[in-house]
UniProtKB/TrEMBL annotation:
<feature type="transmembrane region" description="Helical">
    <location>
        <begin position="206"/>
        <end position="230"/>
    </location>
</feature>
<dbReference type="Pfam" id="PF07690">
    <property type="entry name" value="MFS_1"/>
</dbReference>
<dbReference type="InterPro" id="IPR011701">
    <property type="entry name" value="MFS"/>
</dbReference>
<feature type="transmembrane region" description="Helical">
    <location>
        <begin position="157"/>
        <end position="177"/>
    </location>
</feature>
<protein>
    <submittedName>
        <fullName>MFS transporter</fullName>
    </submittedName>
</protein>
<keyword id="KW-0472">Membrane</keyword>
<dbReference type="InterPro" id="IPR036259">
    <property type="entry name" value="MFS_trans_sf"/>
</dbReference>
<dbReference type="InterPro" id="IPR053160">
    <property type="entry name" value="MFS_DHA3_Transporter"/>
</dbReference>
<dbReference type="InterPro" id="IPR020846">
    <property type="entry name" value="MFS_dom"/>
</dbReference>
<feature type="transmembrane region" description="Helical">
    <location>
        <begin position="35"/>
        <end position="58"/>
    </location>
</feature>
<feature type="transmembrane region" description="Helical">
    <location>
        <begin position="242"/>
        <end position="260"/>
    </location>
</feature>
<keyword id="KW-0175">Coiled coil</keyword>
<feature type="transmembrane region" description="Helical">
    <location>
        <begin position="331"/>
        <end position="349"/>
    </location>
</feature>
<feature type="transmembrane region" description="Helical">
    <location>
        <begin position="70"/>
        <end position="93"/>
    </location>
</feature>
<keyword id="KW-1133">Transmembrane helix</keyword>
<feature type="transmembrane region" description="Helical">
    <location>
        <begin position="7"/>
        <end position="29"/>
    </location>
</feature>
<feature type="transmembrane region" description="Helical">
    <location>
        <begin position="355"/>
        <end position="378"/>
    </location>
</feature>
């Protein structure tokens, strides 16, 4: 009997970890504590690199010690990182927080989705992934509303409330049920299997095309909706308060990801993916061409919706292609490829944005179209009704 309670506990953790009360003023919070925007970008680059370095070791460790212990450790460290962030002042402290966060992100990569996937019926997986992602969005929305209505310019209070929500999430993680069978006597066999998994992944050119295609859309959304959108809004003459309310609105539309499974079933994987990649590319083109506030907001919303609907689909497709019992390890290998692509794309966006925000937005449209082409090439090999994938894990 599957541990269905894991799903509900993971839902609660997702909701609480979505409650980042300083979300609307993340950059301003750091600036008020004494670091510059350039220093913020340096910290982000270091963080991405560390995530890449920690990814594979964490996958092996998670498969050795079990998914519950890994999840518990990461949730506790997540909580501690928020305490560091709350009290941080200066480059060193924020870098330390980001190093801790890199350990957490790489540790959770593949583990959270594996717990969900192995705790439910496979026919419900995409729907559950959609709910899981949406609860994170709902948590962020709730926190943003509390910030706008009550916290306002009290940055440190927003940091403290975030500490509280992450502390509760860490406590909830203690009640998770292990879903992976562990056998320490198989340690050498697992290392050998890791090497085989790595070789098999690198030889699977279609899987690599899929992962790079996914990464290009993910990184376009991440960079534009978290960082470049603020530059675009200033370009359009919007005030700080208006940017705050837009942040809430953009966060709200993220919950539309719950419809991902239904739309995939209705439209089919390829048609649905083509709509999402196309909408994201169009949004970037509009952002590059306009200085109108309304058009800019609508475009950011389009990009957010495309990503929110795509996330549950790509999570389900990744899990569907796992062929070994060491699910976290295999997904970690996938994440390394995604992270490498993300680092490259992020550097492109950063360099072009320094020159002109228009160039960065145009790059977003090209990368989205390139991502769709790679996704299409993958789909020609694994058509919707002709997958050569073992789904009986």
């Amino acid at each position: 009997m599957k541990p269905e309670r894991n799903v509900w506990l993971m839902y609660a953790i997702a909701l609480l970890q979505g409650m980042v009360f300083y979300g609307p003023i993340a950059a301003l919070y750091r600036q008020s504590a004494g670091i510059t925007i350039f220093q913020i970008t340096i910290i982000e680059a270091i963080s991405l690199t560390l995530c890449l370095l920690f990814e594979l070791p964490w996958g092996i460790v998670a498969d050795r010690i079990g998914y519950k212990k890994t999840m518990l450790f990461c949730c506790v460290l997540y909580f501690l990182s928020k305490i560091v962030f709350w009290k941080a002042a200066g480059f060193g402290a924020f870098l330390a927080e980001r190093i801790m966060l890199s350990i957490v992100i790489s540790g959770l990569s593949g583990v959270d989705s594996s717990i969900l996937y192995l705790s439910c019926d496979k026919s419900r997986a995409q729907k559950i992934f959609g709910i899981y992602n949406n609860l994170q969005t709902i948590g962020l929305l709730f926190a943003a509303a509390i910030y706008s209505l009550f916290i306002k310019d009290n940055y440190r209070l927003s940091g403290f409330l975030t500490v509280c929500s992450y502390g509760i999430a860490a406590i909830i993680a203690f009640w998770l049920v292990e879903v992976k069978n562990n056998d320490n006597e198989k340690a050498k066999a697992e290392v050998k299997e890791f090497v085989e998994l790595l070789k098999r992944t690198l030889k699977n050119k279609y899987l690599i095309l899929f992962l790079i295609g996914v990464a290009l859309l993910n990184e376009t959304h991440q960079t534009i909706t978290v960082f470049l959108n603020q530059i675009q809004y200033v370009k359009c003459g919007l005030s700080d308060s208006a940017i705050g309310y837009i942040y809430i609105g953009v966060t709200i539309v993220g919950v539309l990801g719950v419809f991902s499974e239904r739309l995939t079933r209705k439209l089919g994987i390829m048609r649905f993916a083509s709509i999402l990649y196309g909408a994201a590319a169009m949004a970037c083109i509009i952002l590059a061409a306009t200085a109108d506030a309304w058009l800019s907001v609508v475009s950011i919303v389009m990009l957010r919706i495309s990503f929110s609907l795509f996330q549950p689909l790509q999570m389900e497709l990744q899990n569907r292609q796992v062929i070994s019992q060491n699910r976290a390890t295999e997904l970690s290998i996938n994440a390394v490829i995604i992270d490498c692509t993300g680092i490259g794309a992020n550097l492109i966006y950063g360099k072009l944005a320094d020159i002109d925000i228009t160039f960065a937005m145009l790059a977003g449209s090209f990368l989205c179209l390139a991502g769709f082409l790679l996704f299409y090439l993958w789909q020609t090999k694994y058509r919707e009704n002709e997958y050569n994938i073992n789904t009986n894990i």
